[in-house]
Amino acid sequence: MGFQSFHERWYQQLHQLVQKLKKTPRPPTSDKENNNLIELAQKFLSHISDYYRVKAALAHQDVLFLLAAPWNSKFEGSLRWMAGWRPFTVFQVIHTESTILFENYLLDMLDGAAQTGDLGNLSPDQMKCLSDLQCQTTSEENDLNDQLAEWQDVASDMMLMRYEDDKEKLIDDLGTIVRRGDELRMRTLAKAVQLLTPHQTVDFLVSAAHLHSLVRAWGEQRDIADGVQ
Fold first, then answer.
1. pTM as predicted
2. What is the Cα 152 distance to its own chain's centre?
């Protein structure tokens, strides 16, 4: 199976997992419901991990095809970082969803409603830990940006000097940088989820998947409108 076919099949399975997450009772009212949230979240993260495992093999075999990403719309391509989404996006999703839910919670609280334990109820300790992780992630992103810039300088010099024999190593080095980007994505996602409760984790995963679907749908519509095949 080619990677493009794998990508489409993987995305369909992701959609199915998201639908299951949406149907889970929140907040959980029993240990059984709470364990179900944990199980579904783990399946979701495992599904993402499987994607990066396959992608890592392709980065080693054909990183240029991976960077071209013909399965993406032009709009999706414009948002890509190291052949994927920016790890910083994790915090943007969490903070945006948390703010929306917190504002709703304030209105409900005035009416005497109890806390729901969702992303709108992040504790001060959770917010501090997320902030620390965000700073660490940004630093690692910057390090990878520097590595890519160095690679581009070397590649430019090699093309000018016509060092044909070094092209294979150059491509291997690029594949290594892309794999490091994916490792940072998965590591950031896993660490962020560890700081959240099962309820909050499901809120976050559903919101992240919804954002991904919106970006994909809008990009495909733009390509159709622009006559892009």
1. 0.89
2. 25
